[in-house]
Specification:
Layout (H helix, E strand, L loop, with lengths): L8 H4 L5 H11 L4 E2 L11 H8 L17 H13 L6 E6 L2 H12 L5 E5 L4 H9 L4 E5 L10 H10 L6 E5 L11 H4 L3 H7 L3 H4 L15 E5 L20 E6 L12 E6 L5 H11 L6 H13 L1 H9 L1 H12 L7 E2 L6 E5 L8 H12 L1 E2 L1 E2 L8 E5 L5 H21 L4
Parallel strand pairs: 1-11, 3-4, 3-5, 5-6, 6-7
Antiparallel strand pairs: 2-8, 7-8, 9-10, 10-13, 12-13
Helix pairs in contact: 3-12, 4-12, 5-6, 5-11, 14-16
The structure holds pyridoxal-5'-phosphate.
Pyridoxal-5'-phosphate (PLP) binds next to helix 5.
GO biological process, one term: amino acid metabolic process
GO molecular function, one term: pyridoxal phosphate binding
Organism: Acer yangbiense
């Protein structure tokens, strides 16, 4: 009954969410452990939860709040952006998570028919956000084969040769699905610096923002900093700011607030009309982020970033467990992992056409679920998420994954 013809092409042509497919797989594979979804195992800070518990009877909690976010929270976030991210000229809008922030930004900046740029392997939800908002010209660029850094030379060529130039360039730092960190020299160049450095190709080499972003043509760089605190081995996250740059952040992973749905946008204060247009989009999607969730976000911020880094530091052990689990694929098969909660691994060539088959086989035969690389535009790879399991469970899951991959390499997908 019914006809697809009655549904929007926009929706029909949007990918099926990989996590929805995998949740079905998890339900169907008895006792499988998930290393699929990008989650953390901790809850929000206890102190913050206790404070929020007391708030439920407060009438303002049940009302709508300001579209752009609670003033106290925005004030605290502006301070955080100054002190931690060195963003001094950005305004804040609080959203129902970073995914909604990204949709807001796409709707504010792009029109159907515009072209946009991403780098493979890309974050599947951002790709879908483009598709579902009618942006069909998604140009997917290459990453450095070893480090998975976005290819700046390719970007420069695309920006200068595509007419009209792409409207938006999207990067995730550190990356999902790879965990790759785009290092400071490649990213941390302010707008003015990038313009002045542009004449100096020597210094400029490999700097993503040094490519000639055609600012006059209205190209935007949108950086997703969801994993800003998830940095390992002494690396430090940094942000860039400018009148063609938007930064997106999330409370989900850092403060264990996935289900509370709070994220935020830092957009350039000086760009005329930005906040007015952004507000129209916000008013028609969530109106405002959940008020009680915003209170939890505020109290979590009061607990401070040290709380987060303290949680994150233990994930290094999980990363080691997963690295060992991936060893049957060979040392050269594994990439990324400097940050975020992911490792990225290449499967043997004969499985490059059907990484979903490998994922299904691992789930049913070996009881562990991971994400196929084809969901991120790179068939023949796997994304392994290690943030959602405490160390003991990670050891169990890692053991299953290692056994499965040993078998895959030696005997193939024996049922
Ligand atoms: C890069 C990236 N951006 C955004 C999100 C979504 O975050 P939120 O829960 O804040 O919507 C995720 C979640 O996995 C992510 O990995």
């Amino acid at each position: 009954m019914g006809s697809f013809g009655k549904l929007a092409t926009r929706a029909l042509e949007t990918e099926v969410p990989v996590m929805v497919k995998l949740q079905e797989l998890i339900r169907g594979a008895k006792n499988a452990i998930s290393m699929a979804q990008g989650v953390v195992y901790w809850q929000p800070p206890k102190k913050a939860l206790e404070k929020v518990k007391e708030l439920v009877w407060e009438p303002s909690i049940s009302k709508y709040g300001a579209d752009e976010g609670m003033p106290q929270l925005r004030e605290a976030l502006t301070k955080k952006l100054h002190e931690e991210n060195k963003l001094y000229n950005s305004s804040v809008m609080v959203t129902a998570g970073a995914n909604q922030a990204f949709v807001n930004i796409v709707l504010t900046l792009c029109d159907p028919g515009d072209s946009v740029v991403m780098f493979a392997p890309y974050y599947f939800n951002s790709y879908m956000s483009f598709q579902m908002t009618g942006i069909t010209d998604i140009i997917v660029g290459p990453s450095d084969p070893k480090k998975l850094y976005p290819d700046a030379d390719w970007l420069e060529k695309i920006l200068s040769e595509t007419k009209p130039p792409p409207k938006l360039v999207n990067v995730v730092n550190p990356g999902n699905p790879s965990g790759t960190y785009i290092p400071e020299p490649l990213l941390k160049v302010s707008l003015s610096l990038s313009l002045s450095l542009h004449t100096n190709t020597q210094t400029c080499k490999n700097s993503l923002l040094c490519v000639n972003l055609p600012i006059d043509a209205g190209s935007w760089l949108v950086v997703d900093n969801t994993y800003e605190y998830f940095m390992y081995d002494g690396l430090k996250h940094s942000c860039v700011e400018g009148n063609h740059i938007v930064n997106i952040f999330s409370f989900s992973k850092a403060y264990g607030m996935m289900g509370w749905r709070v994220g935020y946008i830092a957009y350039p204060t000086d760009v005329e009309g930005f906040s007015d247009q952004l507000l129209k989009i916000q008013d028609n999607i969530p109106i405002c982020a959940s008020i009680i969730s915003q209170h939890l976000a505020l109290h979590s911020l009061e607990v401070g970033p040290e709380w987060v880094t303290n949680q994150v530091k233990d994930l290094v052990k999980n990363r080691e467990i997963v690295l060992d689990a991936l060893s049957p694929l060979g040392e050269d098969a594994v990439r990324g992992g400097e940050g975020a909660i992911y490792l990225w691994a290449r499967l043997p060539t004969k499985y490059h056409d059907d990484d979903y088959a490998v994922v299904r086989w691992l789930a049913h035969k070996h009881g562990v679920v991971v994400v196929p690389g084809s969901a991120s535009g790179c068939p023949g790879h796997l994304r392994i998420s290690y943030g959602g399991l405490i160390e003991d469970d990670c050891k169990t899951a890692g053991g299953r994954l290692k056994k499965g991959l040993e078998e895959l390499v030696k005997d193939g997908m024996v049922q």
